[in-house]
Amino acid sequence: MTPEQLELLKKYRITIPPSVKCVPYKASDLFDFLGKNNGLTEEYIYNNENPLTLQLPVYTASYEPIGYLPIDSSKNGEPLKKCNGEVIIIFRQGYAGSMYIPNEKMFFATEHTIPIQVKEKYKDALNQHWFAKYYQPEVMHFVTGKADSGNYSKLAFEKMTFLIPERKWQDKCAEMYLGLEAELQKVTQNISGLSVNPVKKKGLTDDELIAKYDNGGKVDFDKALKAMSKSPSAFSKKKKKI
Fold it and tell me: Which of 19, 32, 73, 101 could form a disulfide bond with 69, CB atoms 3.0-4.6 angstroms apart?
C-alpha cells in the first residue's frame, strides 16, 4: 500500500443515507468555544516546565503537544485556561482547518487553536469523533491563504450550519472510523519499520568463509582468522600450506 493510498483511506467518510433523519444546528448553538492562552511559546514552556509536578500538554498548531506545563500554571498573575473532557481542536494555523481530538482529557490550548466542545444539552445528540471526521472537508473549505501558511478563523466556523443525523448512526460510523484509523496506523508503522530496518543479508558460515579464503577469495582477514580458530583442523591445514 502506497502513502497516497493511505491518505485516501484516511479521508474516507460514510455518506448519510436519505433514510436517516437529520436535524440542522448552527455551530454557535451546538458548541461551546473554550478558553485558550496567549504567549505559550517554546521558550516560555522551557522556562516554566516542572517534571516534578503534575503537568498538562500544551497544544498549538500541531497534532503533537509543543510541551508540558504544571497544571496550576499562571501567566501575568492569571491562571492558565484549561480544556477539560473530550475536546475538538480546530487548528487556526499550521494544519489550518484540521480537526483533532487529543487523547488527553485535560490540556492547555494556545491562541493558534480553536478548542470546541459540544454543549451539555446536546451531548446525547452528537458523537464528536463522527463530527470531526465527517465534516472535515466542509470546515477545510473555509481555510484562507496558501497550503503551507493557511489560516482558519473562529468566525468562519461559527457561521456554519451542520446536519446532524441520529446518534445511533453516528456511533456506528465513529466506531468504524476509529477502527480504520487504528489499522492504518499499524500499516504506517510497519512501512516505516521496513524502510528504517532493511532486511540484513545473511552472512557466510565459518566453513564457507574458510573455503573462500583458501580459494583466494576476497574476505575480511580477521573474520577468516576467527573462523579458523574455531576449527582447529582448518587452522592446521592452513599452517601446513604456509
Answer: 73
Pairing of strands 99-100, 113-118: unpaired
Strands 113-118 and 88-91 turn out to be antiparallel
Q: Cα dist. 14→30, 120, 134, 169, 175 in Å?
A: 22, 26, 8, 10, 12
Q: Give the helix/strand (H/E) hosting 113.
A: strand 113-118
Tell the residue number behind the cell numbers 501575568, with chain if given.
76
> Using one digit for the tens of pLDDT, what is the confidence trace for 171-222?
999 999 888 888 877 877 777 666 555 545 556 777 776 777 677 666 666 6
**Whole-prediction pTM value?**
0.74
Element (H, E) at 237: helix 232-241
Residues in a beta bridge with 134: none
- Give the separation between CA 34 and CA 157, rounded to whole angstroms: 14
Kind plus residue range of the DSSP H or E element containing 117? strand 113-118
